[in-house]
Each structure stands twice: as C-alpha cells, then as structure tokens.
Fold this protein.
Amino acid sequence: MINKNRLIKLTQELIRIDSQNPPGNECRIAYFVKDKLKKMGLKVKLYEFRKDRPNVIAYYKSRNPRFSLLISPHLDTVPAGSGWKFNPFSAKIYKGKIYGRGATDCKGNLAIGMEVINSLTENKIELDYDIIFAATADEESGSEFGIIPLLKKRIIKPKLALILDSDDYKIIIAQKGLIHFKVSITGKKAHGAYPWRGVNAIDIAAKIINQLKAYKFHYKPHALLRPPTINIGTIRGGDKVNMVADWCDFEVDIRFLPGMRKVDILRDIKKIIQARAKKYSIKIDGTQEPYEIDKDHPLVSGIRNTNKRIIGRQNLAASEGATVITFFQDLHIPAVAYGCGSGGCAHATNEYIKIDSLYKGALVLEDFLITLNRRKNS
C-alpha cells in the first residue's frame, strides 16, 4: 500500500540533493538512493562510466521469473537558474505542490518508483518476473554515462522497459528523431568599407538559413506528433563591426517523424549548403532515431488499462523531444515512457509537482506491476 506521507517526504529529500547537469555530479543522490533501496532489502550495485557519475541498479527478484521489466527514472536535473519564488532546492510545499528543480523532471518520478518498490517489499508481494530498477545518470546531456552504456555493455538485459520520465500520466509510445549539427562557413576578410573585396560568411550563412527554414520535408502525417521541424539554435560570426566576416558558425536542431530517414534529410541539407557556400564544413553533434511502439503491445495496453481504471483516461501520447526510449530499439526491447510530472514544468523556473499527481502516479505504477503478475490470481 502506497504511503502518501512517506512519498511526499522522499520527493522532498530528493529535490534537496543538488544533481544539476551540467556540471554533472550524481554522487550524493546516487548514494542516497542506493541506501534507501538497500534498506528495503534489495540487491543494489553502482556502475560508473565517468568519475562522480554513478548509476544505481537494484533488483526485485522473483523465484521463477518469466521475464524482466526495467523501471528507470534519472538522477540528474538541468541547472536551476535564477528567478525562483522559492529556493529551488528547498522542496517547499505550497498550495498542494512541491516546488524545486527536478520536482517534475524527474525526482517525483524517481520517488514514485522507489515508494512502489518499498510498498511491494513491505507487503511481501511475490511477482513472477524480475524488476530491474535503474536510476541513471546524465539523462539531461544525452545519457552517454547513463542508460546507453548500461544497455551496450549488457549490464542490464530487460525484456521490457518502462521509463519513468513523463508528465500528466501520459504513456509515451512514439517520439521524434533528432539531428544536431553545426555548419561552419568560411569567407574572406576585408575592410568593412570595401565589402566587395571580401566574402562575407555571415551573408552566406543568412541565405542558407533562409533556405533551411523554407525546406519542405517529405513525410507521412502522424496521429500523435506535429510535422518535422528545423530550429536554428545558435549563430556566431565575424571579429569586428568594421571587418568583412570571414567566418560564421550556426547550429541546427532537426526533429523528424517515425518513417523518415536521417540520411535522406542530411543529403538534402548538404545540397542546400553546397549551392550557397564554396568553403564550409558540417559537424554532426548528435542524432537519435525516431521511435514508435504499437499501441496494442501488451506493455502499452497494460498501462492504458491501469491508467483508465485509476486516472479515468488511457492517455496515449507522443514526445516531440527525445527521451531515452529510443535507445532500446536497436536491442529489440519494447519500451514506453510514463510519469506523473506536471505538464509545462520540466526545465522551467518555479518547477513543481502536484502532490495529488505524485500519489496517483504511484497508485498507477503499483497497480500496473501487480496486474502484470500472473501469479496474483493463483
């Protein structure tokens, strides 16, 4: 049975531990989570792929498991920033909400995962599958030191994955892919009073950017996702106002739909740049493939049914941004994201989570885990 007061206290304790990324140091929160899980009687290990960036792996074991289910929230948060009405690490309760950096993304979800496991152990619930609980590092900067090496090194080998990193009880079954790249344009210096003597890299970049913004993607509309997007995130160039700029760099964020191929998109982007620039380079900073799981997959239908029973709606959704569910597809592991964060609060000033959402999210997770257990009726 979920202990609401204990859940609230745990959420506050987690928020009060600074785990901002950058700079990236999950040691304090990882050891806190490890100690809590060990006191519940779980076998717990830490795995570190960069100094001071531990991942916490715990096991709720079955005597004769049919399969293993991964439950995974993350430990890190984005930087707090300024302008808060309450200290971002105070975990202040105000009008039914807990305020603080990470309240929604993702320490509330971390807390419900831990509380549900605590409830299962207290009530001696026997499951016919193993739970792998992985509280991971570095999610906010790409998971290079978190879920990616845990999967690649086969440290965790789940049959199914439930990622606790969503808002408003949404079941994330699809998400866009991403391409991040930097374009560097090289021009020719000259005096600003004689621009015809030089080649202005900023002018070239501006023309390329206009063409990129006008680029027409080829895609099939998706029921849960908006069309593909291009965003110019940064631009820098030139050395001084009275000089013709001989360099300009800009960074591009592209989000694309399931069914689209990044190789086709990059080929078209390169053609646009080649048509305008004689000297340039393109550096790919990161990519993720789009992801989609069938809405009738047993993992999805199980959460849908539990959501409808407790929350009153099934709540299938998709993510315009990138979650870690995409990293499971190369290993053919069905994955969805779920969570009880407050919509619009992730990464925002005055981030909060509603206490009612926190409690109901824990009820959904516990009910789902027990429903997944075939032994419950034996």
